[in-house]
Amino acid sequence: MSSVKSQFIVIVGCGRLGSYIAGILSRDGHSVVVIDAKKSAFDALSPEFSGFQIEGDATELGVLREAKAEKADILIASTDNDNVNLMVAQIAKQFFNIRKVIARIYEIKREMLCKNRGIETVCPSSVVGDIFLNFLSDSLERN
Q1: What is the pLDDT of residues 91-113, one digit of tens each?
Q2: Which of 10, 45, 50, 89 is deepest in the core (most CB within 10 A)?
Q3: pTM to 2 decimals?
């Protein structure tokens, strides 16, 4: 039995990333609610997902209330839209006082905006860019 306390996690966006995270967290015993604007997005969830699905626009307070965001320990904004992720993350932090909020942000310049508002970010462009530069570091030093 795991010594990690089960968390209540809201995931906004059920694409490749959101569905992947939801499946793993659900399998690991966490309570997970996934929100997506498209019902068909939930088809990406793994068979091991045992959480809840809410079809709706997570930028609307009513949808977040339906997801019981006020009880969430963590909110992950993982849609493919920076503006939606930033808006949902701000609402989660300021309105629902969720202690840990993480947003996927594609635009590198927006990372600081999020960090200044207490929102943790994952920027695929900077993460992958750093990996490429790390791979290149040996080759570049030899020249």
Answers
A1: 999 999 999 999 999 988 888 88
A2: 10
A3: 0.89
**Contact (Cβ atoms closer than 8 angstroms) between residue 51 and residue 32:** yes
pLDDT digits (tens, 9 = 90+) for 36-54: 999 999 999 999 899 999 9
* Helix/strand/coil (H/E/C) assignment for every residue in 51-98: CEEEECCCCCHHHHHHCCHHHCCEEEECCCCHHHHHHHHHHHHHCCCC
Tell me the β-bridge partners of 122: 104
- Write down all domains in the chain, each with its CATH number in brackets: 8-142 (3.40.50.720)
Decide: 105 and 79 in contact? Cβ < 8 Å: no
Q: Say how many C-beta atoms besides its own lie within 10 A of residue 27's C-beta.
A: 14
